């Protein structure tokens, strides 16, 4: 209820709606009650009460409305791309890797991911998927979880010409070890292909994003810029190398930012099986108290085209 009182005050309840809010503070400084003074007829009082409720609801639900608007814009490109591509072109990829040790110490590290994609760089494309990582160790009866995170992502791009396009992206991330309870990111932007051939591509993207997060029990939401690039080169029959990076500084302070990067290689073992090695880095310039700025991961495993 304390948050509702604060929202009501921020929305200008006293001056605009003729309401008088009274704060009662206990020994612990928390809200304990409120008083609303109303004058005039019962009808006028009810109207003021109703308007105050609308004001509070608007202030509380505005972030959700903004998120919904950005999501609609972000996935508009995906819908347009889907209209020009056959659903039968949908491609599924499942990847997994695991490491185990036994003896004086017991460790287990596992990684799984799934990606669905369709389209191409000529008309438009979209992709969505999820990835999870988990690791624990047991040494001298001391068991510890060293990695536990999961990520969901989706993106789409609609080509406007041979090299220019527009698109959107959305992501959700959780990491218990880094004390990230949630981090939601949605954004839109323009894309430009610096290199675009049958086997190689290099695309640059830029645009605004909005981020909601709770890190180390601290909630925040803010507008950020997003700059990204992605390079990919195909070799042989089913082999490829790729590299991707993004930089997201806060709009109000460009020295406060998030950054993510990935590089990997896949080599064909058969028409459907591939051996893959992936390097990932996540960087937060303002991590939670006692947390390090970056997390690195080197992942080896098998991917299967379904």
In short:
The chain is α+β, with helices and mostly antiparallel strands and 306 residues long. It contains 3 helices and 12 strands.
Write the layout of secondary structure elements.
Layout: H1 2-10, H2 13-17, H3 42-83, E1 91-101, E2 105-120, E3 124-139, E4 142-159, E5 164-175, E6 180-196, E7 200-215, E8 218-235, E9 239-250, E10 253-268, E11 273-284, E12 294-305
Antiparallel strand pairs: 1-2, 1-12, 2-3, 3-4, 4-5, 5-6, 6-7, 7-8, 8-9, 9-10, 10-11, 11-12
Structure keywords:
12-stranded antiparallel beta barrel, Porin, alpha+beta, single chain, 18% helix, disordered N terminus, globular, 58% strand, 2 domains, 306 residues
Structure description:
The protein is α+β, with helices and mostly antiparallel strands and 306 residues long. The protein has 2 domains: 1-83, no CATH class; 88-305, Beta Barrel (Porin). Helices cover 18% and strands 58% of the residues. The chain has helices at 2-10, 13-17, 42-83; strands spanning 91-101, 105-120, 124-139, 142-159, 164-175, 180-196, 200-215, 218-235, 239-250, 253-268, 273-284, 294-305. It has a 12-stranded antiparallel barrel with strand order 1-2-3-4-5-6-7-8-9-10-11-12. A hairpin with a 3-residue loop joins strand 1 (91-101) and strand 2 (105-120). Helix 1 crosses helix 3. The longest helix is centred in the first third of the chain and has 42 residues, at 42-83. Mean pLDDT is 80; it is low at 1-40 and 81-88.
